[in-house]
């Protein structure tokens, strides 16, 4: 057994010396390893106001979305503001969090102490939100507005 470990060590050193791993391949392997927890970090869409009956009266209503992950919830209200959109959100339970709105016009910000944030002039198209609360982070699925 000890001889096998010694031989394996010698073979590893020889491979590192004569056939090293290319840096780009090492980067791809590292990114693939990080990707392994993507399901654990993806927030569940628990409510979408577009999934229910569409109101007949009252004009345009904001779209309401709720995502849940890691013992937290992220509530969003999306309103059209002319040619762009406005996102008003809150992290629940209320607390400070780092928010990154990913999409055509990416924005990074920090919520207030009650977990609230507002992002104006969000272009139409797909967007996703990454939320970091301390050491815990989650990402919403892509939503098209």
What are the main properties of this structure?
alpha+beta, 145 residues, 3 helices, five-stranded antiparallel beta sheet
Structure notes:
23% of the residues lie in helices and 42% in strands. The radius of gyration is 23 Å and the shape is elongated. Strand 5 and strand 6 form a beta hairpin. By secondary structure, it is of the alpha+beta class. It has helices spanning 2-18, 23-35, 38-41; strands at 44-48, 63-69, 72-81, 84-92, 98-102, 107-110, 116-122, 126-133, 136-139, 143-144. It contains 3 helices and 10 strands.
Shape descriptor reads: elongated
Q: Which strand order does the major sheet show?
A: 1-2-3-4-7
Helix content: 10-25%
What distance separates the N and C termini? 61 Å
Fraction in beta strands:
35-45%
Q: Which class of secondary structure composition applies to the elements?
A: alpha+beta
Please state the average pLDDT score.
87
**What is the gyration radius calculated from CA atoms?**
23 Å
> How many H/I helices?
3
Order of helices and strands: HHHEEEEEEEEEE
Q: Give the number of DSSP strands.
A: 10
Major sheet details: 5 strands, antiparallel
């Amino acid at each position: 057994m000890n001889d096998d470990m010694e031989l394996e060590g010698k073979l590893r050193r020889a491979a590192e010396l004569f056939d090293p791993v290319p840096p780009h391949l090492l980067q791809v392997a590292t990114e693939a390893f990080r990707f392994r927890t993507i399901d654990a970090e993806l927030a569940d869409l628990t409510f979408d106001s577009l999934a229910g009956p569409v109101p007949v009266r009252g004009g345009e209503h904001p779209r309401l979305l709720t995502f849940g992950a890691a013992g937290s919830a992220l509530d969003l209200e999306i309103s059209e503001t002319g040619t762009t959109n406005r996102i008003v959100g809150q992290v629940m339970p209320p607390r400070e969090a780092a928010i990154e709105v990913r999409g055509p016009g990416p924005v990074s910000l920090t919520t207030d102490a009650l977990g609230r944030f507002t992002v104006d002039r969000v272009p139409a198209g797909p967007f996703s939100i990454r939320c970091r609360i301390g050491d815990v982070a989650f990402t919403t699925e892509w939503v098209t507005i």
